[in-house]
Structures are given as structure tokens and as C-alpha cells.
Amino acid sequence: MKLIWKLLRRHISIGQLVGFFLANLLGMLIVLLSLQFYEDVLPAFSGEDGVMKNTYMIVSKRIAAVSSINGEAQPFTEADVKELEGQGFVRRVGAFTASRYQVYASLSMGGIGMGTDMFFESVPDAFVDHRWPMVSEGEVPIILPRSYLALYNFGFAQTKNLPKLSEGIISMIQMDIRLRGEGGAERHLKGRVVAFSTRLNTVLVPESFMRRSNAELAPNAVSEPTRLIVEVKNPADDAIATFLQQKGYELEDNSLEAGRITYFLKVVAAIVMAVGLLISALSFYILMLSIYLLVQKNAEKLQNLLLIGYSPARVSRPYQLLTIAMNALVLLLAFVFLFFIRGWYLNLLWQMFPAMSEGSTSMTILMGVALFVIVTFFNIVAIRGKINSLTPRRKKLTGGLYHSING
Fold first, then answer.
1. pTM (2 d.p.)
2. How far, in whole angstroms, is CA 219 from its chain's centroid?
3. Which of 52, 107, 188, 229 is the most exposed place for a label (fewest CB within 10 A)?
4. Alpha-carbon distance 98 to 73, whole Å?
């Protein structure tokens, strides 16, 4: 091994290895930084709340000044739904199902009881990112809009001298819910808030519960959906706004703008990561070129080592250890620079978005380790292949030496 290291040091090109090291470090840092920046910035700009994706839009029909349907919102017909499903920008369409019975919810805090009439709605579970928890019989999980909590804390609670409540406290409080349907049929349940949403302006319950309760309390009532939830392929597609304008449909809140921002961030992050991967690929080429030149300079001496009994694995090991060490140092320095730069831009983001939470670093760390493993693996295989290419000459030289001795 010492002999091979002496051969390696004798013809090593420091400039070529430094070029590989810097190029690989730059490529690795660009890839990791773009991924981590995307993870950190996305919640601030897209308003992710863990309940709905930003590729979902909530669509309704415009309400005319004088509605022809008893002052109610115009429903979507089956033809409307099929037409929307047939659009090129649509992945799938789901309908909001409303409760066809009366809902009354009440709770008590500090000896003060509160109650109100309300309503339930549901969407297909495939459109809800939050997993509905398992509940006991007679209990129903609920997702509330965050705006409802804000109305209570900054409106009702202040006027009634009641304590303000956080999301965590609300999630621990059980509500008494009374459902009243056709013919005076009643059902009493316990309600528990399991999540809050910034994009849903409704009281959401599981679709399975909605189907059972409607069938039990209002079997004869039939109503068409007045709102649809739509998953789109590309929120930045101009065809979406054109279609909605032509049909007179409206979007709730800024779901389209949020989706566009999310899509834009994904595209930018993908482009930057592609540039980083390209630089990493070029650095891999530089390293392989350096190793090949180094092996070529020592070809005769390496062949002699093979002739005297050194295996190709043993001859190639110093070159492989050199690349592993350099790749490991690149990964380590890339993480150091990444967390230094991340701390700098997070301070800037927190000045603009004080309530913003930083993204997870687990995906970035896994990406860095994966790149290290992949690049190192191909380095090892390429070096071993180059050393093996010298092995056939061993047979030829051995044969020539035999004929010389016997000649």
C-alpha cells in the first residue's frame, strides 16, 4: 500500500484535484441550498396549513342580486361538473356536501355557556391532506377555519370578558352537538376540533359521517352542491382564469394566487437544482479525467504491481480512498456553508414574516447523503474499471517474458 501511495503522490496534479473539489462543492451547495430554501420559504408564501394542497381551488357560482332560486346560491349540475372535469388543466373534481338537517353546537367555559346554530359540510377524503383521526361512537371530528377562532378572540371574547383561546386549547375542548332532522328526529353527539384551516371557510366533517347523518336525519332531502373543490395540474395555467371568467365562476380567497406562487417556487427550485446537478456532473468528469491521467502516468508501474501479485482491488484502493475522502470533505463543507447561509436568510425572512416557522432540514440532509453515496459509488466503479483495463496487458507481458526465457 505504501508503494502505491508513493506512486500516487509522485504524479498527482494538485490543480486538477482542487478544480474538482471546488466544482463539486459548488454543485453540492447549490443543490442543497435550493432545496432547503424552498422548504423554508414555501410556508411563508403559500399559506400551507396542512389541510389542503395549494393545487386545490374552491369554486362557486356568482350570486346574482336577485336570485331565481329563493335567494340561495346557484348549485352545480351534473353537466357543470362534467364540463369542468373535461378541462385540460383539471386533475379531478369533488363536491362539497352540505348537511340537510339543523345543527346546534354548545360548550361551557368557566361557568359560562355558549351555543350557536351552525352547519356541517364535507368533501371527499382524498381532497383533505389532514388524516381524520379515529373517534369513539357518538363523537365527530371537526376542522374549523382559523378565521372563526380570530372572530372569537378579537371580537366576542373581548366584549364578554372571556379568556382568549389558542388552537391547542380549542382542540382539547369537547362541544355538545345536537342534530335535528325530519319529523323531529334528533341525535346528540360530542364534537372535537382536530385541525384549523386558513383556506376552508366552512365547518368540515368526514364525508362518511355526512353520508350517514344525511341518510338518517334527512332521507328525503336532496340538494345539489353549491361549491366544488378542484385539483389543477398547474395553478399558473392561464386557461384557468379564462375558463372561470367565461363561466362566471368565483374562487374563494386567493387560492389561485397561492397556487401560482407555489408553482413558481417549485419551478425556480427545480431549475436551480438542475444547474447544481450539472455542475456536480462536470466536477465528476473532472475528477475522472484527473484519475485517468494519473493512472496513465503510472500505467507501467501499476502493471508491474499487477504482475508481481497485487490484485486490481488493492491497486485501485488508494485512488478510491482519495475520492471518498474528497467527497466526504465536500459534503461536510457543503453542510457548513448551507447552515451558515440559511441562518442569514432566515433572519431576513423572519423580519418580513414574524410568525413564519422554519422548514425541516431532514430532506436536505438526505439529499446531501444520497448525492455523496451516488457520486462516490460511480467514482469507485470508474476507478476500478480503469485499473481492470490494465489487467489484460499483464497476460501479454507474462507471455512475452516466458518466450524470452525459453528462447
1. 0.55
2. 41
3. 188
4. 13
Place of cell 361551557: 108
Q: What grid cell was written down for 302?
A: 501499476
Q: What per-residue confidence (pLDDT) applies to 256?
A: 61
Shared-domain flag, residues 208 and 264:
no
| Amino acid 158: pLDDT | 74
Amino acid at 57: M
Give domain status of residue 244, yes or no.
no
What cell does 115 get? 351555543
Is the domain of 207 the same as that of 327? no
What are the grid coordinates assigned to 329, written together?
470533505
Cα–Cα distances (Å) from 169 to 15, 46, 49, 175, 248, in that order, read 62, 26, 18, 13, 41
Q: Is residue 292 part of a domain?
A: yes
Give yes or no: residues 187 and 287 share one domain. no
Let me know if residue 66 belongs to a domain: no
Sign of the dihedral through C-alpha 399, 402, 406, 407:
positive
Diameter of the chain by CA atoms?
Answer: 116
Residue with cell 399559506: 47
Which residue type, as a one-letter code, is found at position 157? A
Considering the domain architecture, whether residues 331 and 382 belong to the same structural domain is answered as yes
Name residues of the chain where pLDDT drops below 70: 1-13, 16, 43-54, 63-73, 109-113, 236, 253-260, 262, 287, 290-291, 293-295, 297-299, 301-302, 304, 309-310, 353-357, 390-407
Residue-number span of the structural domain to which 22 is assigned: 2-47+260-400
Measured CA to CA in angstroms, residue 400 lies from 213, 302, 404 at distances of: 92, 18, 6
Phi and psi dihedrals of 347, rounded to 5?
-60, -40
User: Is residue 358, in this structure, part of any structural domain at all?
Assistant: yes
